[in-house]
């Protein structure tokens, strides 16, 4: 099978505290480093021939563990960054609710950022993420595997768009755990790309509140 493996970065201190990260360059904490060390040999067993990553520190540090396990060099692409969360960056959920009550209400109702001032829209993220994923998929030779390290919210949204699913399907997917991964593969019948697995992990889920309910973008 030709495969594309999408991996969320390991845990950060802000994940633990429930703070929105967005483009803020927060590195992995001790647990996040352990998660990256645990997932790296599992991904190496898939025999990837290419490794891509967001250029943000938490993704770079996760990708570095995978690179060490696979012997691959990491190619960085800023298009693989998380949503820019604008003025929500650094805020916990209670702080977000207090400072931006209207945006918080919209977020609780299902809007991925709450349209807080300065935040990227879904369209903006899809317009940069999906072309990047398509380029990586197109560059992956037949029967080989490429790995992409990115972020929770942008991966969930771009996965749905990449597969051509209706936008509302994103609301039925929970967010990826830290160092959880998705496997996409070519359909042998020639009907394009299909989802083979979602949110696989090699460790107990150790993270802050579930992204799908209360966790911020990160």
From TrEMBL:
CDD domains: HP_PGM_like (cd07067). InterPro entries: His_Pase_superF_clade-1, His_PPase_superfam, PGM_Phosphatase. The active site is at residues 9, 82. It holds the Pfam family His_Phos_1. Substrate binds at residues 8-15, 58. GO terms for cellular component: cytoplasm. One of its GO terms (molecular function) is phosphatase activity. This is Histidine phosphatase family protein. It comes from Nocardioides marmoriginsengisoli.
